[in-house]
Amino acid sequence: MDLKTFAEDDFDPKKWINKAWSTSDSHEKEVFVANSVTRLQLYMKQLTNSLDETTTQIVTSIPRILQDASALQVEGALLQQRLLSLENKVQGVEEQTGHSIESLQRIDQLKSRLENAASALREADKWAALANALEDVLEKGVPTQADKLHELSEQVAAMTASLEVLSDAPDYENKRLQLETLYNRLEAAISPPLIEALTNMDAAATSRYVRVFTGMSRRAAASRSWRRAAAARLAAAWRALPHHQLRALTRLLAPDAHTQVTWLTNVLKSDTPVSELIRLYTDLLLSLEPSPTKVVSANLKLCSSPEDGIVLLTDLRRDIDEFIACITGVMDAPRPNKETISPAVLKELGRAAYAPLRELLPQYTDLQSQLLLANLNDPQLKQEDLLDQSRALLTTAERCEGWLSAAYAKAKKIAAYAVHPYYAPAVEAFVTALSSHISTHSRRIESVFLSSVSGGQATGVLSTTFPASLLLEAAAAVLLTTLANRQAAEQEEDPKEESPLMDLPSLLLEPEVRQKLSAARAEPQACVAGLRRTKEQLRNLARAILRHPVEAQLDKIPQLPVWSNNDALSTDLPDFALSPQEYITEIGQYLMTLPQHLEMHLSDKQAPWQFLSEVCTHTCEVYAEKILNIRNMDPLGTKRCLTDIVYLSSVVEDLGGNVTPALKSLEKSLRAATPAPSE
Fold first, then answer.
1. Which of 21, 113, 228, 329 holds its CA 20 to 30 A away from the CA of 410?
2. Are 460 and 545 in contact (CB under 8 A)?
3. 310 contact partners, CB below 8 Å, separation of at least 6
4. What is the pTM of this model?
5. Is the sign of the CA dihedral 623, 624, 627, 633 positive or negative?
6. What is the mean pLDDT of residues 335-339?
7. How far apart, in Å, are the Cα atoms of 516 and each of 426, 486, 522, 524, 588?
8. Strands, E, within 188-279: which ranges?
9. Half-sphere exposure of residue 291: CA atoms within 13 angstroms, side-chain side
10. Total Cβ atoms within 10 A of residue 311
11. Contact (Cβ atoms closer than 8 angstroms) between residue 403 and residue 372
């Protein structure tokens, strides 16, 4: 039997009895109960005996435990006393040790001061000897022998080290000034032979002098001497050239670049050889005589045509790119310790290299303007016939896409995206000149039209002025489309991030111009607005010419005598007895002939319908206005007017147009005012 069940907190006797009863056989219930009771009684007796034995053991062991606890308490008190005694002894030892350590520290400081004083005295004696020896060398003259120069380099290195040891001496500043003066004299004495050795490319002699500069901690001065000697040698080679060309300068510097880097690395022991080379070439380009800018400017003046000038600028950009490629090759060449070159140093070289192109770019505007404007010197643009002149201008406008595309492609070869501030004014001048041709011819067409109107000659769709104005409007539209397409194409070619040597906007443009470059490329040119106005004026002129025959007939309406003073007997005439009057039939016949004539002049299938629809709408609107201007209209005049309105409406509807609401309303009003026929 499991006794753990009786020890649980939630033990329920009823549940336990029911569970035990359900597991027994139904025929032996009484035997099962009797056995269970007997077993439980035995378990209770065993538990009682076990509890009594445990209690007896606890009672007998308590006195012994109390005795052990008392003994432990006494031992704890003794241990506490011993710990206090030990703490007092430790504090005493610490006090004695602290005084000893302070004494040792004072002794060590005193020893250090004595050693420093002794060292300072020795260095002072050594300093005086070295200073006197260097003074003797300077008075006798700097030696040129290799062993003597070696001794001199060791001597100045020792003086530099000795001065560092004497940094705490009271007269340190005086010694520093004295050494600085000696080094200045020594540098002045050995700079000429160093420059001579550098000029002659004598590596052994140069190394000896460089060691002296290194001993003086003046390696930068040696680099300056190298730069001065190299610049003088290259400048002399430039002056000796039979023909001064930028390409020749590039070919002069290209093979020299790698040699100079090797010298800087192996002989001058420079940590930044490429940066030193870039500084050399920067100073050289700014100091050459004659300067590359003057050479290129003189060559540009000798160009016999704008085409030659554009070619010269293109060649100039190519020559500069060759030089930049040479420098980039030196920078990218593999070497043990790759140095990091400052972007500012690269930008200075780029500004110096691109100086000739930056100087001549403003002249590009004039050259490109001349080339573009030369296309307008075509004799075809000076014809007497209106229609032929319009056709010539349309042909010219259609060819502008090719001209501008070719010009921009050449411009990019000169200065890439940085050319825009100089390319845009040339395009502006060209488009303005072509727009002036269009505007002049537009005024001429308008003048001829007005003269024909005042002379009572035939106008309208059959007039030469109408197709001439249409073609001229098309020329303006083609030119506007070309400009929009060119701007979109140029905008798609967004400039990418370039290295400082290839960032042409920064190298060729002034800061304020460069900041506005993106906005200027996105804005339409100033000539576009004027060209749009001209196009709109031509559109209105073409429609005025087309509508003139209609308007000439409609102007007669208010003065026609048929509206009033009619015979009273004629008033009762039936409507079918009346026919449209001459003015409205003239209008109807003109409108009916428009489709075939418009198709002759308009290539777009939708354009004739647009023109025809506009003319029909305009005719209905003006007709309604003219009818309202009739002062007196008798019943017969009203019938005649209604007959004319019906005729015009049928013509407009036959042509596929719609009668305007104003004319429909007017027709309803007139019918309401017309008296009913008498029975």
1. 329
2. yes
3. 364, 367, 368, 371, 410, 414
4. 0.70
5. positive
6. 77
7. 18, 19, 10, 14, 59
8. none
9. 15
10. 13
11. yes
Per-residue pLDDT tens digits for 338-354? 788 888 899 999 999 99
pLDDT tens for residues 48-91?
Answer: 888 888 888 887 877 777 777 777 888 888 888 888 888 888 77
422 and 365 Cβ atoms separated by less than 8 Å: yes
**Cβ-based neighbours of 449, under 8 Å, separated by 6 or more:** 459, 463, 465, 541, 544, 545, 548
Q: Which of 305, 341, 324 is nearest to 416 (CA)?
A: 324
- The Cα 524–Cα 531 span in angstroms is 12
Query: What separation, in Å, do the N-terminal and C-terminal C-alpha atoms of the chain show?
Result: 135
Return the beta strands (E) in 266-311 as ranges.
none
Are the beta carbons of 315 and 375 closer than 8 angstroms? no
Token readout for 509 is 């443009």
Q: What are 535-540's contacts with CB under 8 Å, separation 24+? A: 535/473, 535/476, 535/477, 535/480, 537/442, 538/438, 538/442, 538/469, 538/472, 538/473, 538/476, 539/473
Which DSSP symbol is given to 677? P
Look up residue 470 and give its amino acid. Answer: L
Around Cβ 219, how many Cβ atoms within 10 Å?
16
Q: How many CA atoms lie within 13 A of 281 on its CB side?
A: 30
Other CB atoms closer than 10 Å to residue 87's CB: what's the count? 10
Q: Chain centroid to CA 192: how far?
A: 50
